[in-house]
Design brief:
CATH superfamily of the largest domain: Metal-dependent hydrolases
Structural class: alpha/beta
Bound molecules: zinc ion
Length: about 375
């Protein structure tokens, strides 16, 4: 069935040739965008929806979340807001709760958060394992994630489980754990940071994953400068995420590579770190994605709009840059060309704002502006 969405005041296509259109329309045919152009030239369709001058953009592509979890870390957040520093070890609290939860509980919690994200305009979502940290628990997280998320990442190398020896744990991650999760995931990731995994351990995990045909991602340079960015670039990772502390050499390496620099503004704020230098990365020519890092410890929000607002108001990205980074940028960080765009052939993921232009995302901070959402051609809101 074809749906004509017309009366679009401003249409963000992210397509370099189509650009931004005024008084536009688009046609969804099943799960695909069939036509994009001026409203006056729109073809007929089975159903017609007039959005009365509102802005339309591709659904958000949230390329970084950790939503297979149980439990809560309110107390840790309160302690942080009272002045305690964030450290990687807090992950262990979620690991304990996740291991104790049933499959049904994990699935229900994941679905609740994905629905929350969808209602705010997220139509393509990556999520990770990483709160199991045993072969059985990581495999279970991967299997559950794969039933819901668009993209699933294996993050067995999230933290050395308390009491375990780091080198033996890395052996396990590179061997039996990778074998058990591989059927359910497209990506592997490693938390390359002081208190998590060092450069040599991170490289071992990434190389073992690449040998099994998985794409690579890296958590790097979150809590201080470190080897994460350089390692990601060397191994042609699709993305290195956080990028809060970057040397000039890191910025240069990203600018001359196809590795996307994914910034996570909500996480920087929630851990009371400086915001990642997105402006510096863009000015150097790097590709920047904006994602939520939704997780119960360091960034408990599914709101991509909040991330975009922060990217504009505090990281000095322009509106267009921030919107691109949270849609097409996220798609590039997942090496996908079918989402993050509204052009013929793209997936029918449409976000209608309760506003005449995307400028309102930053102009009206904190105001819920999602008016309607289609995902794969199905109206979600
Ligand atoms: Zn993360």
């Amino acid at each position: 069935m074809a749906i004509l969405i017309t009366g679009i005041g401003e249409l963000t296509t992210n397509d370099p040739e189509l650009g931004k259109l005024r008084n536009a329309a688009l046609v969804l045919d099943g799960d695909t965008v069939a036509w994009v152009g001026p409203a006056a030239q729109a073809p007929d369709a089975d159903e017609r929806v007039d959005v009365e001058g509102r802005a339309v953009l591709p659904g958000w592509v949230d390329s970084h979340t950790h939503l297979v979890f149980a439990g809560d870390r309110t107390a840790e957040f309160e302690a942080r807001m009272a002045g305690q520093a964030y450290a990687a070890g807090g992950i262990a609290v979620t690991v304990e709760a996740t291991r104790a939860a049933s499959d049904d509980q994990l699935l229900a919690n994941l679905c609740r958060h994905v629905e929350e994200a969808t209602a705010q305009g997220t139509t393509c979502l990556e999520t990770k394992t990483g709160y199991g940290l045993t072969v059985a628990d990581e495999a279970r997280s991967a299997r559950i994630a794969a039933t819901v998320a668009d993209e699933v990442t294996f993050l067995g190398a999230h933290l050395v489980p308390p009491g375990a020896d780091a080198e033996s744990y890395v052996d396990l991650v590179c061997g039996k754990m990778l074998d058990a999760v591989a059927p359910h995931v497209r990506w592997a990731d490693v938390f390359c940071e002081t208190g998590a995994f060092d450069e040599a351990q991170s490289a071992r995990v990434l190389k073992a994953a690449a040998q099994r045909g998985l794409g690579l991602r890296v958590h790097g340079n979150q809590l201080g400068e470190g080897p994460g960015v350089q390692l990601a670039v060397e191994l042609d990772a699709a993305s290195v995420d956080h990028c809060t502390y970057l040397s000039d050499a890191d910025v240069e390496a990203l600018a001359s590579s196809s590795t996307v620099a994914t910034v996570l503004p909500a996480c920087d704020l929630s851990t009371r770190h400086p915001l990642a230098p997105a402006r510096r990365l863009l000015d150097a020519g790097a590709t920047v994605a904006v994602a939520s890092n939704a997780n119960p410890g360091s960034s408990y929000t599914t709101s991509m709009a909040f991330c975009v607002t922060t990217a504009v108001l505090q990281m000095r990205m322009t509106i267009d840059e921030a919107v691109w980074s949270a849609t097409a940028g996220g798609a590039q960080a997942l090496r996908r060309g079918d989402v993050g765009y509204l052009r013929p052939g793209a997936r029918a993921d449409v976000h209608v704002l309760a506003a005449p232009s995307t400028t309102h995302l930053a102009y009206r901070p904190g105001v819920p502006l999602t008016h309607a959402v289609w995902r794969k051609g199905v109206r979600m809101r």
